[in-house]
Design a protein that fits this description.
By secondary structure, the protein is α/β, with parallel strands linked by helices. It is built from 5 helices and 5 strands, in the order αβαβαβαββα. It has one domain: Rossmann fold (3-Layer(aba) Sandwich), CATH 3.40.50.620. A 5-stranded parallel sheet has the order 3-2-1-4-5, sandwiched between helices. The longest helix has 16 residues.
Length: 166
């Protein structure tokens, strides 16, 4: 473990989105966890994921990708704005702090500068390259067997709305 205060202050400087955190920490160093994603529409699978992540750290930092479609055109553009997603995420009891980022390079820099104790990734990334793979951050793999995805959730909403129109 390490002293968290200095690098969390860097977090505040890194993001243009600031919260009212006062910089205080308990005398013991908490286990700091981090997870990254667009988190466009929060669904039951995300809640399970945040529950598991939060149960394996003391403070869960969420790196919020502002728009993944900028660097990866095949990725869908988020429906909700970054402010709306930040508001939703900060309202979750599992989430300690949200840091929006624009590019994978920004995420890599944030992960590099802030010494997290654990990073949470879905098991589907086990055999793939991902941002920060070269960093010395222990990975806690989260099962994706809940059956939910943002794409599936959007499809269910579409089908529900379509049935009501016809």
């Amino acid at each position: 473990m390490h002293n968290s205060t200095n690098f969390i202050k860097k977090t505040m400087e890194f993001s243009s989105f600031k919260s009212e955190w006062d910089g205080s920490m308990a005398e013991t160093s908490p286990v700091l966890g981090v997870i990254a994603g667009a988190f466009d529409i929060i669904h039951p699978g995300y809640i399970e994921m945040f529950d598991e992540a939060a149960s394996n750290c003391d403070k869960l930092f969420v790196c919020l990708h502002i728009d993944p479609s900028v660097e990866r055109p095949l990725k869908p553009k988020p429906i909700l704005s970054v402010d709306e997603r930040t508001n939703i995420l900060t309202s979750l009891t599992q989430v300690y702090y949200v840091v929006p980022y624009r590019t994978e390079k920004d995420l890599a820099l944030y992960l590099y500068e802030n010494k997290f104790d654990v990073r949470f990734l879905g098991e589907d990334y086990k055999d793939k390259d991902f941002t920060g793979k070269d960093l010395d951050i222990p990975i806690h793999w989260i099962a994706r067997d809940h059956g939910w995805s943002t794409t599936l959730f959007k499809k269910k909403i579409y089908e529900s709305v379509s049935m009501n129109i016809n």
